[in-house]
Amino acid sequence: MKILVTGATGYIGKRLIPLLANDGHHIVCAVRDKLRADKSYAEDDEIDVVEADFLKPETLQNIPEDIDVAFYLIHSMSNSSKDFESLEERCAVNFKDRIKHTKVKQVVYLSGITNEDNLSKHLQSRKNVEDILKSEHYAFTIFKAGIIVGSGSSSFEIIRDLVEKLPFMIAPKWLNTKTQPLAVRDVLAFLHRSVGREELYNKSFDVFGPEILTYKQMLLQFAEVRGLKRYILTVPVMTPKLSSYWLYFVTSTSYKLASSLVDSMGVQIIGKPSNINELQDVNPLTYKQAVELAFEKIEQNSIISSWKDSMVSSGRLRKSLHKYINVPKYGCFTDYKERPVTNVKKTIDKIWSIGGTNGWYYGTFLWKIRGNLDKLFGGIGLRRGRTSPTELDAGDALDFWRVIFADKSQQKLLLYAEMRLPGEAWLEFKIEDKLLKQTATFRPRGLWGRLYWYSVLPFHGFIFRGMINKLVDV
Asked: Which residue in 19, 225, 305, 438 is a FRET match for 191, CA 20 to 30 A apart?
């Protein structure tokens, strides 16, 4: 079958595509920016990549008409716009308008469990999208999941931060909210096994793990898996705003995502039983099993996708990567350095391993200070780290940078700053004629931007000099 996957660069989409391909299907990946698509897709004759922005109907003509099945995996948890409900509604309407002009027989949507009367804004938005996508032109299959547990998932990484950083927690009362966590591999099993299954047509299924746990129990069980002793005291006086700040300062999440999560975590997420497990031969893992398997992936450095690489994890980039790839020159300040390279491969490997737990090779403590200052003023700081310790692709998060261009064959890496700045900043590494050329570019915004550049100039002098020296010292 020919299958359209929307949200192809997202957490679920990136993991679903290889499973569908292994089943022998031809995949069409719909992405807003081709630069963010996995490079391996270009080498696979059974995978096509098309640019389609579902907020821009004119781009949807790139979606072919001869598709058989479509997966709708477009969600927003921390969009910079306050009116994310209307954005999700527009995406769903535009998708439906385009898809009904194709030969699609089935649309599969991953939604959230919405069995409570009082839903959070995000869960209510998911429910609204379900209603929009229903159509007489195709069969509609809905899977409704709660907390998804897997390496790189937002819930997993937030719980990991809390458990590994805090031996004792004074936590908000919503930690007593009940939920049914589900392993990401089980979510993927439900999705990819649904293709062409007529018994699932025009039906909705809640999918969930075998246990009902509170968030507090999830934290404590996570600690058991990690061999840690943790103590949690819940208090009734922590307001949603204080709860959001608590998550923001302790974990790697942004404040916007923290606010969204706090809004959702006050809602009980308990699924309605059905025969879906038997229909699709899925035996969901327990929460502890899901956590253990997630750490196996982490230890093997085989995390396929992470929520931290989402373009809304910082809220700084408003456009596609193409808009940032040409570094400006007019009205900009630059710090340029070059050094001869004796071993190109080793230098490239060091460049591709920069940041995260590896640090920035020189003056890392100053990078940490800058990260803490950024966090203090509402920025992302260094908390995101990096998904892979040795590989980088366009669109990846790298501490408080975003990878705009990464190509080892062209020996070039370009980063764009997502920290709080009175302007815009780029950092480029490029090897030409056995010379490593390192360029920091800053485009100031007004007087404050210029004052900022001159205030940090003394630090740039030895930080960037030390960094390039370490990169060529192999």
From this structure: 225
What is the separation, in whole angstroms, between the first and last Cα of the chain? 50
Same domain, 54 and 176: yes
Please give the structure tokens belonging to residue 421: 């700045």
Binned at pLDDT 50, 70 and 90, residue 379 comes out as: confident
Distance CA 176, CA 72 (A): 32
The residue range of the domain holding 355 is 321-472
In this structure, the answer to whether residues 43 and 72 fall within a common structural domain is yes
Round to whole Å and give the CA distance between 422 and 334.
Answer: 15
Looking at residue 242, its amino acid is L
User: Would you say 335 and 437 are in contact if contact means Cβ atoms under 8 Å apart?
Assistant: no
Give the 3-state secondary structure of residue 170: strand
Query: Does residue 316 belong to any structural domain of this protein?
Result: no
Provide the CATH number for the domain around residue 437: 3.30.530.20
185-212 in b/e burial notation, b at 16+ Cβ within 10 A? bbbbbbbbbbbeeeebeeebbbbbbebe
Residues 281 and 393 in one domain: no
Distance, in Å, from the CA atom of 197 to the CA atom of 193, rounded to the nearest integer, reads 8
Cβ atoms of residues 23 and 42 within 8 Å: no
89 and 207 belong to one structural domain: yes
Tokens of 303: 């995390």
Pairwise CA distance, residues 110 & 75, whole Å: 9
Residue 286, amino acid: T
- Find the angle CA(47)-CA(415)-CA(11) to the nearest 5 degrees: 40
Given 257, 286, 309, the domain boundary residue is: 309
Domain CATH code at residue 47: 3.40.50.720
pLDDT at 79: 46
The answer on pLDDT for 389 being more than 60 is yes
Task: Kindly state whether residues 391 and 467 are assigned to the same domain.
Answer: yes
Kindly state whether residues 210 and 156 are assigned to the same domain: yes
Q: How many distinct helices (H) and strands (E) make up the chain? A: 13, 19
Number of structural domains found in the chain:
2
SS3 state of residue 270: coil
Give residue-wise pLDDT tens across range 53-110: 998 999 999 999 999 999 999 886 544 445 778 888 999 999 999 999 999 999 999 9
* Unique residue bearing structure tokens 């089943």: 23
Do residues 261 and 345 both lie within one domain? no
Where residue 380 falls among pLDDT bands split at 50, 70, 90? confident
Pair of tokens at residue 324: 């940032």
Contact 464, 440 (CB under 8 A): yes
On whether both 332 and 293 belong to a single domain, the answer is no
Q: Which of 282, 309, 336 is the last residue of a domain?
A: 309
CB 261 within 8 A of CB 165: no
